[in-house]
Amino acid sequence: MQGGATGLAFRGRTASIGFAHGPFVRVNAGASGERVAGSLVEEALALRSAIDVASGQIADLAAIAGGEAAQILEFQVALLDDEDFIEAIFASIGEGSPADVAWRSALDEQIADYNSAEDEYLKARSSDLADLRDRVVTILRGGEGQVLKIPSGAVVCADDLPPSRFLEIDWSGGGGLALLRGSPTSHVAMLARARGIPMVVQIGTITEVAAEVGPMALLDGEGATLELDPSAEQLRLFEKRRETHRKSRASARAILQRPTASWRGERIKLFINIQRVEDLEHADAQYADGIGLMRTEFLLAERGGLPDEETQFQAYDAVLRWADRRPVTIRTFDAGGDKPVPGFTQDGEANPFLGVRGLRLCLARPEIFAIQLRALARAAVRGNLKVMFPMVTSADELEAGRKLFADVVQRLQADGIAAMLPELGIMVEVPAAALAVTSFRAAFFSIGSNDLAQYVLACDRSNGALAPLMDPLHPAVLELIARTAEHGRRAGISVSLCGDMAGDPRCLPALLNCGLRELSVNSSALAQIKQTIDRLSSGGGLG
Amino acid sequence: MLDKADGQIFTGNVRLVHAVGMHARPAVKLTKLAKKFQAQISVRVAGATDWINAKSVAKIMAMRAAHGSTIEIKASGSDAEAAVAALVNLITTDFPDEVS
């Protein structure tokens, strides 16, 4: 924080990227003023009427907001419709409690109950209950129908803001949200991202500067800064950052929003690689044709040992829900090699890259593998799931994996649990698999160019001294890629490439000439790769 | 089961397959569906002592039914049989978005 002539600057955490320059409006979260309680009958009537008003307000908000926001609000409406719950509050009024006190203590009890839960999901619901509690209390205190008066384009600052309050603000003229507390994973942050409203959270405390006058504020969602009463220099720098952001977004968006990439009249499908579920929050991820590689090793890195079926299922299900109908290829655990996992991988291998890793390790530890397969089999009924095995050498390994998977599905179904066997494919990264690609009964192939190059060139990819030799464009590597692509084309089997080569513009001409028409890259490389394909397609160079 | 005094009581058992257990969205769907029936409908997690009103979202949430638990349902009243069947179906089909 810095003060004086330069204005005040505060830093928080990014919840939604974007820039806002507008009047600073401090919203006081705590409702003020006490009610004067009436007779028992008056209090009961006051609460009944406040509940009706609140119910109507929330229903209106839900109707306007639609989608996910409406579902968040539906729970609040259901609670107001819950006769058992409401009756207990009226009983307390009958015993002499004022309406607002009775209401508040009933809600506080629920909130405390949810907060005491182990379950993060239930804890998160408690903010929805606090939202409902405050709405009804505000109405009871005569603030009925009082919508926050926020000038258009304002930078709204609050300690925290419940979802319904966010939805009441008219964001059509832009503006931004600065929260002293809050969280990037809250419902409000989700709503802000969906609407493109910049939002910074966890700012801590701010020095109140002439709050009633309403100074100008600059909110930078990218740098997570809030500047109050800025100097000319601060404003100039802010506008410069905003312009840079606008330009880079505009060019990337323009490219990504264009129809699908094509090269010589053939469609090129572009997928994304993700390491963990949060990678889907990247702004460009939505433009992908699907997920070409979801790595699952992050699940093994969680504290508390190997992940249970439910943890895994929830991660897979979240990705499938995000993808909607688009394909999602999940790779089973690829541990071993340079990725040791305590309690799973084998210690003391002289040459771990040529050791028990990938599918080899999973087949050697069926009790661990079966848990992942169960989670995948359950997830398979929820979307367009494909599953691939890493580090496959022979067709027998694929069949052994398929057998385990099929047994798991059968057991789940026998227990009445929805499950199915998804499409099964393999990573092509062992040279033997590339050379004998026709021997595999796979639904698809995905070339792992990093390991393939390492094994074909006999170069440890982490050994810097070998960097000049470690060339993925070596004719031997390209030969194996071309053979795999050719087999796919003849047999009508999809072949993609998900290694670093796919995200390297210099490798693109070679990959396209090898016959590849599906590539999977990190979200951050999506725009550049699409732009490169467009240039190559129109006869241009790499630019 | 036949109870001479109160008319017929219908019961059902169903396993909760929903990934996160009986949370807000499933609880809202369950109570909404239960309210479409005249019948008095109660539920509980198998093994629990108390029956819970299936039309109360607060109580259904408080039940904290976890993924994989078995839900017992009982109903009495004119449309009790249909009510049990509808709730069993809702839970078996994992709370689809269109219930009607």
Keywords:
heterodimer, A: 543 residues, alpha/beta, Glucose Oxidase, domain 1, Enzyme I, Chain A, domain 2, TIM Barrel, eight-stranded parallel beta sheet, 17 helices, 45% helix, globular, disordered N terminus, B: 100 residues, alpha+beta, Histidine-containing Protein, Chain: A, five-stranded antiparallel beta sheet, 3 helices, Phosphocarrier protein HPr (chain B), HPr (chain B), PTS_HPr_His_P_site (chain B), HPr-like (chain B)
Word description of this protein:
Chain B: InterPro entries: HPr, HPr-like, HPr-like_sf, PTS_HPr_His_P_site. Chain B: It comes from Bradyrhizobium zhanjiangense. Chain B: Residues 9-98 form the HPr domain. By secondary structure, chain A is of the alpha/beta class. Chain A has three domains: 4-27 and 149-251, Phosphohistidine domain (Glucose Oxidase, domain 1); 40-143, Orthogonal Bundle (Enzyme I, Chain A, domain 2), CATH 1.10.274; 264-537, Phosphoenolpyruvate-binding domains (TIM Barrel), CATH 3.20.20.60. Chain A has helices at 40-65, 67-80, 83-94, 99-115, 120-143, 163-168, 187-195, 232-257, 309-323, 359-364, 366-380, 395-414, 431-435, 449-457, 475-491, 508-513, 523-537, and strands spanning 8-11, 13-16, 19-26, 155-158, 176-179, 199-201, 216-220, 225-228, 262-263, 266-267, 269-274, 291-294, 328-331, 385-389, 423-428, 444-447, 494-497, 518-521. Chain A has an eight-stranded mixed sheet. In chain A, strand 9 and strand 10 form a beta hairpin. In chain A, helix 4 (99-115) packs antiparallel against helix 5 (120-143). Chain A starts with 7 loop residues before the first strand and ends in a 6-residue tail after the last helix. Chain B has helices spanning 24-34, 57-63, 80-92, and strands at residues 2-3, 7-15, 40-45, 52-53, 70-76. In chain B, a hairpin with a 3-residue loop joins strand 1 and strand 2 (7-15). The radius of gyration of chain B is 13 Å and the shape is globular.
